[in-house]
Amino acid sequence: MNKKLWGGRFEKDTDALVEEFTASIDFDKNLYKEDIMGSMAHARMLAKTGIISKEEAAQIIKGLLEIKAEIENGMFEYTVELEDIHMHIEKRLFEKIGTVAGKLHTARSRNDQVALDMHLYVKEKIDDVVKGIDILMGTLWELSLQHQNTVVPGYTHLQRAQPIFLSDYFKAYYHMLRRDKGRFLKAKENADLMPLGACALAGTTLPIDRVFVKEQLGFSKIYENTIDAVSDRDFIMEFLSASSIIMVHLSRLAEDLILWSTSEFNFIELDDAYSTGSSIMPQKKNPDVLELIRGKTGRVFGNLISVLTMMKGLPLSYNRDMQEDKEPLFDTVDTVLSCLSVLPGLLKTMKIKKENMKKAVEDSFIDATYYAEYLVKKGVPFRHAHEVVGKMVSYCIKKNKKLRDLNVLELKNFSSLFEEDVKDENKGFSIK
Ligand code: ARG
């Protein structure tokens, strides 16, 4: 007979390679807290409904709490023979309290158990991500307040386009993060569904109380359909989607700052504490932190694609394929949290070279749109104004001048509508 907790109908032991191949303990040990919390609520419910006695539930809960302490003190042994965290905890409970342990899995399957653990985990991690977003948003807001008068070229196609305030640049990222926060909170709302009681897929004939479990575990809703409850990984895909989108934003911020820190732009300098050196070139100061944020974005996208692809062809209901949701999820949580935690310090300590930003604004044709709009205000159709100013730019390039170097007489060669006030209103250059 097979020694597994499910070994009754088996005549042979599991092949060692199969044990190795099917085990998830290396990563799902991450879920120990959620698993124990879920089991304690389940045991209380079994006692409340009279399915087990109050004493039995008390023994089970005491055992589970001891196991939690063992895990947290590094006194717990893991082995691939026991497959996953659920089996490990149950087996250890047997060692501690004997046959009563066998009552815990009444009216429960690992299918609804693992679904429950994952819901609890995702909900909790979303809170951590949202805290990280709040801190980063605070940093961006502070920077935007400090740079309300700092001008910097704004770019489209990575060509100097129009002068902007650095404050608005930081606020752009602030707003992206605000939407990200909304997406994570929505994902949390959608993850707030309690699957336990679905058992393998078809519920149970035992008189369980799912509302009691829901309340014990702080969920606001219960899955209405038991097949859906064990088959659903939408909440994971939503978390991974929201994570991918926030990583797009963090990666674009990283890219901007990498460019700005080059000698070619020379708009910022990263603090030594947030830069790394080269092993061969003594002069180098590299933006590795930012490059890694940009690089790690790829793995977060990959994790989303893995789970989407893993799910798309699965027949209802639970399939073991779904065990493959864990590593991408855990990896994404770690990656997003680490990127969020490193950015505020990097942003706060970087040196902003206002003078170079201003010089870049002055050293360009970035005020061209201003001249076109000046003519529009005098009644010229925009398309025509655009062409006039285009000719002025072309003239300046030939003469090695900037638009602001043209005096009103020269400007009148392009349009008689130019008057002295074109200089007064030249906002692009009046900013100090
Ligand atoms: N380790 C499994 C997972 O992560 C737990 C559920 C196993 N269920 C089963 N019927 N084999 O999905």
TrEMBL record:
InterPro entries: Arg_succ_lyase_C (IPR029419), Argininosuccinate_lyase (IPR009049), Fumarase/histidase_N (IPR024083), Fumarate_lyase_CS (IPR020557), Fumarate_lyase_fam (IPR000362), Fumarate_lyase_N (IPR022761), L-Aspartase-like (IPR008948). This is Argininosuccinate lyase. The keyword Cell membrane does not apply. It is found in: Cytoplasm. It comes from the Bacteria. It comes from Thermovenabulum gondwanense. The keyword Lyase applies. Its EC number is 4.3.2.1. One of its GO terms (biological process) is L-arginine biosynthetic process via ornithine.
